[in-house]
Amino acid sequence: MVENMKEDSIKKLIVSVESSDGQKSCVTFVREKDSKELIRALEGLKEILESVQGDKKKLEKELDETKDNKKELEINLRRLQEENQALKVGNEALEQKNNKTSQTLENLKRELDETKDNKKELEINLRRLQEENLALKVGNEALEQKNNKTSQTLENLKNEVNIELYEFYKSLSSQFRSNFTYIKDDNLIHFNATSTNRTILKSLYGFIENEKCEDSSIIELFNKLFPLHEELYGFKRLEVKEGDNFNNKEHTNIKDSKGQGSIKKVCLVGFKDGNDTSRSLVEL
Question: 183, 169 in Cβ contact below 8 A?
């Protein structure tokens, strides 16, 4: 603030300056002719000071805002640093996982290549085995046909020479074979020659009848020999079954000379050689 006081030709000026430490005043004396110019200069200075004070307040406000922004920026910086660290750790984990995945992928590719190679080799081996199997199958079918033919030939030969019948006869008791002298069993040729004699069944029938059908193996021998005589001489078996009524013309009761009633057991089915009939041996 400026105060004007007139004392002779000297003008007293009181100047008040407001500073940051508070308002201060000073007194100075100047000539009146210089006072107006000085006053104008001081007023200009006042305006400058006021402008500076305004700028100062503005700058102080901006400084406060800058400090607040700085704090916020520091907070954001720390947050970003933490996020960056987390991202860095995550990135390292992802990189490790990616490396592991890449290695796994490489292994899978290698295994796939090996599998493809193995597949080709397996396909080649499969085709080779299929061809071998087909050849073996064809060969097996040929061998099977040959074996069937051989088996049939052998079976025919056995039937022709009566090997099984000869072996069966040899298995009978030595006592029977000694007593029944009509069949010679010293070799197969003699056996075939004597066992196919037309009268052999008649003789064997008489042996069974005398023994009262006690030996079932002798009856079995008779039944095995009959098809040969049926084929060679046209022998015919009689028809008889359990429950039939006894008939003296076709049946013989092996337990008693007399007979009447129904047949309980058929021991040996009789046969006919032309008009000659050998009656069935039965039990009543």
Answer: yes
pLDDT of residue 8: 45
Let me know if residue 224 belongs to a domain: yes
pLDDT at residue 23 tops 80: no
Q: pLDDT tens-digit profile of 43-75? A: 787 888 778 788 788 888 878 887 888 888 888
The residue among 74, 99, 125 that closes a domain is 74
Judged by phi (left if over 0) then psi (alpha if -120 to 50, else beta), residue 243 lies in left
d(CA 141, CA 1): 138
Contact (CB, 8 A) for 270 and 280: yes
Q: Does 136 map to a domain?
A: no
Q: Is residue 162 part of a domain?
A: no
For residue 6, what are the domain limits? Answer: 2-74
Q: What distance separates the 2 farthest-apart alpha carbons in the chain? A: 205
